Amino acid sequence: MFKIKLPFEARKLAGLKAGDTVLISGTVYTARDQAHKRLARALNKRSSLPFDLKGQVIYYCGPGPKPRKKIIGSCGPTTSSRMDVFTPKLLKAGLIGMIGKGRRCRQVVEAIRKYKAVYFLAYAGCGALISKYVKKMKLVAYRELGPEAIYQLEVCDLPLIVGIDAKGRSLYD
Hints:
Blueprint: E1 2-5, H1 10-15, E2 21-30, H2 33-44, E3 57-59, H3 87-92, E4 97-100, H4 106-115, E5 118-121, H5 127-130, E6 134-141, E7 150-164
Parallel strand pairs: 1-2, 2-3, 3-4, 4-5
Antiparallel strand pairs: 2-7, 5-7, 6-7
């Protein structure tokens, strides 16, 4: 198991292989379908983004309601393929990592390889457990989207699996 501190060091990212297990600590941003649509629209219009994508990791997650005295509610991964239409554009803009669940389309796998990014798999069905790895949460943008808004999360030792590595090798192949 590899321990990784965000932001990524290029050599650590390049050394990961599909199937490796990792513990990630640092900043990740949540974004689901509607947030991705807005990010892509802003890139198309050359408008400013709510956060700089360069070197960042997006977690395909919409946190559930926050219980009293907790930092975040259940925060399991959503199906990544729903973001596939937007992913190559975000990777081109500097996104370096994604966390979700499920397969990615051929175009996304090629973009991951081209931009030397990594796609991580979070454990599906474990949203309540995953919430224990979140140490801070802050709203970043699109409050009106509710759980689909963009949140900045500080995570510590979040357990993930490398689903697609920077060379385009996929755990699903």
